[in-house]
Design goal:
Shape: globular
Largest sheet: none
Helix content: over 70%
Structural class: mainly alpha
Length: 151
Amino acid sequence: MKNVTATRMANASALCALGLSALLGWSQVAAAAPGAKTSGATKSGQRAGKDARKSGGMGQLRRLSTTLGLSEAQKARLKPILQSAGQRTKAVRASTTLTPEQKKAKLREIRATTQSAMEPILTAEQKRKLKQMRQETKKRQAARRSQKRAA
């Protein structure tokens, strides 16, 4: 029974990490959007992403709270999920035994389980906003990859 609970918590944490990763990317997309204030917005967005990784998920919770308008109850339910995802992500990144491909796979798994754990906590409107943010993040990442290839 303890193993099942631990597995569920780990899966929930991974899902939250994925959602938060998408949110981090979305904040950078919003900063780079036409008409957005550009006085250091990109640098701030990049800094925010790095700070979020160091804070064990709490930076991600603050961003989700602001962007999605989370209630206090939602924040309380998401906090342990995001903390666990942050810890697992940090452990994977620090691992010296995993290959880069294995690290990518583990990080994808963490993000997927974190997302699935977040789903029942969010309202329909919050889910819609989060989905939109993820789509914008994918577009931004694809554009960045194509710029790197062209350079």
